[in-house]
Fold:
Amino acid sequence: MDSFKNIPEKDWLDWHWQIKNRVMDLETLVRYISLTDQEKKDIKTVLKQFRMAVTPYYLSRINPDDPCDPIRRQAIPTILETHRDASDLDDPLHEDIDSPAPGLTHRYPDRVLLLTTHICSMYCRHCTRRRKVGDNEDCHFTKEQLTRAFNYIREHKEVRDIVVSGGDPFTLSDQEIEWILSELRKIDHVEIIRFGTRTPVVMPMRITPELCSMLKRYHPVYINTHFNHYNEITPEAKRACEMLADHGMPLGNQSVLLRGVNDDPAVMKKLCYELLKIRVKPYYIYQCDMSVGISHFRTPLSAGIRIIENLRGHISGLGVPHFVIDAPGGGGKVPVMPTYIISQAPGKIVLRNYEGRIVTCADPPIDNLEQKEELSRYYSQEGVAELLNTGKPAIDPDRLAKKGPRRG
Ligand SMILES: *Cc1c(COP(=O)(O)O)cnc(C)c1O
Ligand code: SF4
Structure:
């Protein structure tokens, strides 16, 4: 079996070398990973439908002889991907349907998702956007398409937070990233810019001092990355995250709950500890969604609830992410957790803590209902919050609202 041990360090640490030498076909893969004849046949079949690319760096973290290696499961195709489950959907999150401009999804009141490229340095086998990502490797969005997205943002003054994602935006050059940042910073009402990137996990040498100093000029810039298992937290990944943090970028992590990779509370707890040590705050754990060809990764909802039960109260609150389901059909992220409120009565609530102690708290009436005029735009006028903040009595689905109030 070949290994990457003899690659000169100056090549190994050069992200262009890593991209150029990605393993994209079976012939190259068999030099580094042991595969049965059946697995070889299966990978050939899958590659007709979905692209494979693994950076030499990420591939080198796989134990070549362990078929259950958690990095291998994320990077190397299996025949299960060709299975189309009855519940699979082509665009489960309605990112295309809810899109007012190329690459743009505007789902929440004050923030948008902006896709800038379809390219990633490593294609995750569990990718939710796999219908697009990696389809066509020439496919960064053009300046003309991005300009249409910027125009939309400019015309929508309520948008104050931009999530720049893809694909992986850090596959763009420093110049391209800087162009996007400088265009966004020309829009006065854009306050926060965030990047969603898997680069610190799959190609940490891309995080260079030059990239970091450039990003720093456009603060506040946040980074959300995507570690799924503690084996991914290597000295190289640590160095990349620390460099970003040293340049003032707060780092969050978004994991996807994956069967056979991280659906064990012990694995997640260790991951959360290790993330905090490299200054990355666990932000979300996503329930694996309904995209085509990833049903073998899905876990029952109870797996996520069990994980939160093992974290909340047991480890630092800083290390406890929100477990969310991105609801199909553009419903957005819905948090799910164990139930902590046991009962309520006027003036009193009954709670349970992580130890199972059942405690009561006096629940005082709210006396500051007078909404402050100067803060009026911060009181949400949408969703369930509207019921709390206004005189609106109920939210009825259209079908029920038409019937009028229910009687008897
Ligand atoms: C996840 C997501 C965001 C950002 O959500 P936060 O909860 O603020 O991190 C914004 N837009 C879309 C479409 C998203 O899916
Ligand atoms: S890095 Fe993100 S967009 Fe790219 S393949 Fe992985 S999950 Fe998909």
Residues 16 and 205 are 9 Å apart (CA to CA).
